[in-house]
Amino acid sequence: MAFARESVADTSLSAVRTWKEGHPAGKAIGAFPVYVPTELIQAVGALPVWLFGAGGSIDISHADSRIQSFVCSISRSTLELGLTARLGTLDGFVFPSICDVARNLSGVWSRNFPETFVEFLHLPQNRDSASAVPYAIAEYRRLLNGLSRLTGRPASEADLRAAIESHNANRRAAQDLLAVRRETPWLLDAWESYLLLRAGATMDRDAHTQFLRNAVAAARRRGRKEKDRLRVVLLGAFCEQPPIDLIRAIEEAGCYVLEDDLLLGLRWFREPIPADGDPLRALAEAYVTQSPASSVSHYRGRRKQDDLPASIRAIGATGVVFCTAKFCEPALYDQVLYKERLEAAGIPYVHIEFEEKMSVFETVRTQVETFVESILFE
Amino acid sequence: MNVYVAGADIGSTTAKVVILDGEGKIAATSLGPTGASIVEAAQRRFKEAIEAAKIDEHEVEFVVGTGYGRFKIPFGHTQITEISCHAKGAHYLFPGTRTIVDIGGQDTKAIGADERGEVTDFCMNDKCAAGTGRFLDNAALAVGLSIDEIGPISLKAAKPLRITNVCTVFVESEIMSHMARGEKIEDVLRGVHNAIAIRSIALMRRVGITPEVTFTGGVSRNVGMVQALEGQLGTKVNVSPLSQYVGAIGAALYALERARGAPPTELVAEASG
Amino acid sequence: MTDGDAGKDLQRRLLSEYYGSLSDEGRNGRKVAYMFVPGNVVELTRCFDMLPVYPEINALQCGIKKMAGDLILRAENLGYSSDVCGYVKNDIGLMLSDRKSPFGVLPKPDLLVCNYSGCNTFVKWFEALAHFYDAELFVLDIPYLREREAAKEDVDYIVAQLEELATVCARISGVPFDRGRLRRTLELSMEAERLWVEALKTAQSHPSPYDAYFEAVFYMAPLNILRGTEGCVEYYRLLLEELRARQKERRGPVPEEKFRVVFEGPPPWPHFRSFWELFKRWGVCGVASTYSKVGGLFDQGILHDPAQPLESIARYAMNCYTNWNLGLRLDLLRRYVKEYEADAVVIHSTKSCRSFSVGQADFREVLVKNDGIPTLMVESDLADPRYYSEAQLKNRIDAFFESLSHRRLLGG
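Predict the joint structure of the above. Result:
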């Protein structure tokens, strides 16, 4: 746990530097949330590094001269990290199509760091179309070619398959960890599983998988007792990351967070991606047909808000805690639709707005406590 | 016969008038609260300045009004924005100045100027109270001190705290939690001053920070703010005891140009009064 | 009839006919397709006799007619945050008011065609409308333009989706897909676009015969709302005639053209007239604008083409201003300054529209620090009347043009 905490708190990416020392020709590629097919990065022998913003650790001084201030803090703090030369150890950046801010951020990045590899990935939004898979394959090939040119190392089919299998194992380990929380929430706090997962942001995939397996075993051995707490699901389209203390405040206010969509990109697929056949096609098909409901991508087939009440019940939760980042458009629009469906289904919810740099949590605690009391003592 | 000109800077809180003689030397200054009536405030300050200069009203050949109330000055011949006036005024006091930061009660300006005191670029924060004097007012209120006390106290900080809230409304609760945790008041106040400095510097970066940097406006009298700015910038910052008059000085300099026959470059169609 | 009225009168008549066609009787059984302006596929939907409705245009009209404030509040009362786009809230407010617009009651959508070009918020917007109206939603995914030339896979993806969309339209309307009709409609679009490009170029004269920002946003309306019709072509013929006449007489929108400006960003619709006044006072004439290209970058050589029906629709859809990446957008701004011999750039940054606004500060950095082009950035909103502060805007605008005037006087 201590390792996870340190790893997450370290915005200087020292873990990446350490990896590079062990892999002399190795490149590290930054990936902006929410989902990037990091298998492609691994397949060219590079280390995928997730960019989760600077939290509250730095002051924004340079970013305002590039982008407006009425936008999510993660876009500004990430840019600030770049402009203050704190991301020098990264050799390239990939920005996926999640919203207008992130998309434009990729353009600002290119202009300000003209010598750096920057790629914007247009993930297909019309996943009902028969042409979505071919398009995704083309996008992935474009990204892969760019990465190959950067690293000087083409990715063979074998490389891609190995990367897929490595990621499958990592996703499986993550799901096992989260299953511990879902089934026996008293054994593992949400903030703990969050840190354990997020530690993988700067780690080699296989090393992280082992790390998670150890954590699962340790969690299962814990001698904690079950408490009388409200079982909830935490939803927030988390591109911007909540402070650890925010998650703790929610739990300490009387909740067991059975499931959440934190770090969804690290566990985007529930099922393993088949590693036989054409690997790019497998990745593309998985994206088009197996992606989870998310505020940053258009739903396929059924409207995601319609499925929400049933999925909350299936998880065994009694309520929902919405936690949206200030200024986050995708989350704020979905809010309204989710709330309507929950109200119609009689599922209670509470809505908290957060910023990655918040440091005072009294109001949050009070809000959630009131919410918990109103339900438990009904 | 002696020629005099005047600049009247009527802000939302204070009104300032500066009288220059024909050579551009300061003959008199006057400062007072604006209060409810812009017209009265302007007239009172003008009268006081004239008396202090020991001259007669009609010896003042040209008057330029600036500031929030610039369109309402009855004795003004024309009006020019305070951005242009601040650049001219800061240049008068510090000819080497190339970047000016004016932290007012309600807004903050960053101005780039050239060797002639001409505005090359500017950026304003007039939408958000964070980074303005208002932030300091709120902080002073939160700790129960006056606005004049908090600056000197902040200089004593041994362990400045980071204030992460940018919102003037929420910074109060952040300050209170620090105090409740037993943190020293000078450390908290230093944090507050630093937070404003950081925001002001972010604004200044948009016009580019080129030495010399001159700090103007009412907040520049706060030694804690000067320290915080110098600390964050890593360079010395020009401050003058006349810093509150910078706008009025600049306005008077424009008035001098016009008295010497220069054509208008501002909008003359605007009626005053 | 005095000069210029022929075009204006025709526009008024055509728009009145258009809104009339949206009424219950006017529709006469035809189906309604809601679409966005950038990358819209009206040529295709017209083939199925479907009537186009543009929620963005409804929103800006509500802004101009001072209705936006109330509508936005209604949406906020429903739960929409103060931090989301004012256009969307205006539209939700319209929905909650049974679509009573300044032009009559608007029909419900039979199909929501979300042409996702340059604005991700469009997807959230129509997901919401699909929810509230329980209407069928087709998301036409238009890839972001990262190089000046669209990649083959981008075009192929859009063309495949257009074929799928055509099938959906045929089902909903009951009208079979007639490719000949599509070609004829594209012919009309192309002709109107050609005339519009000629009209835009007249701003290269000194003085410019029209304001390429404040007047262009009205001149472009028929191209956005009525593209693919004969009335639209006729309008642009008249407009071009009028502008050529003004060019001959050296007549422009301000008594004396003192400053030629390139404008970036949408205008503040709820305060359109007073915003324009702040510039007119200084003898400012807009000679080029980027907002007038949200409906298509026709002046960059991208026209519809009946010889390549779906392909040209696909290319057009990718080449709308906000779908160009920031590098291409900045390059366009710089070219406009040169081609139209502008003295300065004014960026109107809007809180609602992240697509336009995020990165404009970076444009300013480059224009001022690298290119030495005087650039003013002002902020308000395109839809929400509350974010407009006249005193502050006037201050900034006056300071900017004061310093330009003063420097001209000093010779540099």
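The CA atoms of residues 184 and 226 of chain A lie 8 Å apart.
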